[in-house]
Fold Gfo/Idh/MocA family oxidoreductase.
Amino acid sequence: MSDQSRRKFIKHLSSTAALLGIGQLAAMGKEQEQVQLIQPEKLYTANDKIRIACVGMGIMGFGDVSCALKVPGVEFVAAADLYDGHLAKVKEVYGNQVFTTRDYRELLHRKDIDAIIVATPDHWHDTISIDAMEAGKAVYCEKPMVQQIEEGHRVIATQQRTKAVFQVGSQRVSSIAMAEARKRYLAGDIGQLNVVEARMDRHSALGAWQYSIPTDASPKTIDFDTFLKDTASLPFDPVRFFRWRNYQAYGTGVPGDLFVHLISGVHYITGAIGPSAIYASGNLVQWKDGRDVPDVVVAIFDYPATKEHPAFQMTLRVNFADGSGGGEYTRLIGTDGVMEMGWNDFRIKKHKLSAAPGYGGWDTYNTFTKAEQERFVQQYQGKYGAAREKAAETSSAYAAPAGYDDRLDHFKNFFAAMRTGQPVVEDATFGLRAAGPALATNLSYFGKKIIQWDPLNMKVI
């Protein structure tokens, strides 16, 4: 495309689209492919100050706080963590004025805290979220919402009773790319959905949760007994504390950590509320470091037909032993096309069948006598006429602008709900409908059986 043609093309685009020459999907397709650039909505205004605290200042805690502070009118006032080094890092990064404590309960009744981010290991999510809502705080809880299915129902009941603003931190559901994907799905761009397939593979120590352990880790610097909560009493073990994702007692393994992202996105796009049956298989292949969860998991989810969508099957895979180097995708496959999701971008490839099926090639036509072939062709042309036999193929791509951050939009939605009373994008019910099937995947894997799931009531049958 010449510079003149490019300028002419951009000039005639609507306010919500432009030509994007780079991006995750651009590298997947043809050079100079026209990608519609989705524009985020206008920033929320800071009507009043919102003061936040964070419980759990690990990787997600620091990331969430940093992102939340980009929203106008937000101030970070307090943090709780069981490792003294994390609390020292808080003051190093955000200043000595930030109040720090090992005991999250000290944050609950402070009048200078409006909202609490829960970024702890999974087995603490429900307790802290419920305590915070009971204390009148808004809660932003990292995914998965809970570690056990029954805990989710208690979180839902608390939110409904207290009317607290509560949002789960699966940020993709706030992505403008996801919103556009939902529009395209509902418009019928891929026909009738029948299969969803997704993978999220890795091949690195850090990707497999072998996180760094500080040299000063000791019973003096870490409150290990509180970390254990109601799990089995054990001697101090910094590996369990810093690599908690590797253990059933504190985390939720591959399904709760990664499948939940994929499930949340599919539920948002399709309007699904969950599968009716789940079966998982896998193995511990490479990372035999003392963990008691698999590093390869494949799961099949059967989604029944509802008024929102047809019946479809979803297959999810995570492989931490992927010698090809890793990679990820989510594909929603329909009768007329496929939607290939990136993180904040996606492509739709349409492959619509022709009304004329064609003949010849690998076909019984070649076994007919010459006379029968002539009669068949005459009949065929009378039925289909000049209809093209080749399937119609088209491709279109969409992407958020360079530098776009879906987690920032997720926090904007959370704070807007606090300021205006508008609904959050991922409430406790949505959170359990995403987390529940992921947790049931663990039940299937360890129990070596198919799990029957009630998606409406969010319970194992």
Residues 157 and 428 are 9 Å apart (CA to CA). The chain has a mean pLDDT of 91. DSSP finds 13 helices and 17 strands in the chain.
